Amino acid sequence: MNGECLCGKVQFEIQGDLPNLYQCHCSLCRKATGSAANAATFVHQQDFRWLSGQDRITSFQKPTGYRSDFCSVCGSPVPNQLRGTELVWIPAGLLEEDFDAVVNVHLHLNSAAKWERDSENCVRLGAGPESLDALNQALNCT
């Protein structure tokens, strides 16, 4: 399976089956992704290989040890080795192909954003120009 950042400068490959995913809802992951949760998995170092762009990766690390690696061109989070282990953290959104893994763990739900809720009344949209119109109406932007 292949993966790449938004601009395509950082590319990687994973060999073997992809493990199931987790979503982390902590405030650090929300800030790093700009979303409600970080969806990712871990693979063993021997199953991971960089294809290009390692020279484009910038790292940020908090004194607590929290680390975020990202593409210096587009800002996408990119894989990094989990400190002190033989595991590589893989952001699920970078994976290029469909896969059968599922989210089977939600972490730090106690610190999830209060606005993160799934509601039966929530508008669900597909893609295309008509979706943008529906989104604007649902958000009362029109």
Automatic annotation (TrEMBL):
<protein>
    <recommendedName>
        <fullName>CENP-V/GFA domain-containing protein</fullName>
    </recommendedName>
</protein>
<keyword id="KW-0479">Metal-binding</keyword>
<comment type="similarity">
    <text>Belongs to the Gfa family.</text>
</comment>
<keyword id="KW-0456">Lyase</keyword>
<dbReference type="GO" id="GO:0046872">
    <property type="term" value="F:metal ion binding"/>
</dbReference>
<feature type="domain" description="CENP-V/GFA">
    <location>
        <begin position="1"/>
        <end position="116"/>
    </location>
</feature>
<dbReference type="InterPro" id="IPR011057">
    <property type="entry name" value="Mss4-like_sf"/>
</dbReference>
<dbReference type="GO" id="GO:0016846">
    <property type="term" value="F:carbon-sulfur lyase activity"/>
</dbReference>
<keyword id="KW-0862">Zinc</keyword>
<dbReference type="Pfam" id="PF04828">
    <property type="entry name" value="GFA"/>
</dbReference>
<dbReference type="InterPro" id="IPR006913">
    <property type="entry name" value="CENP-V/GFA"/>
</dbReference>
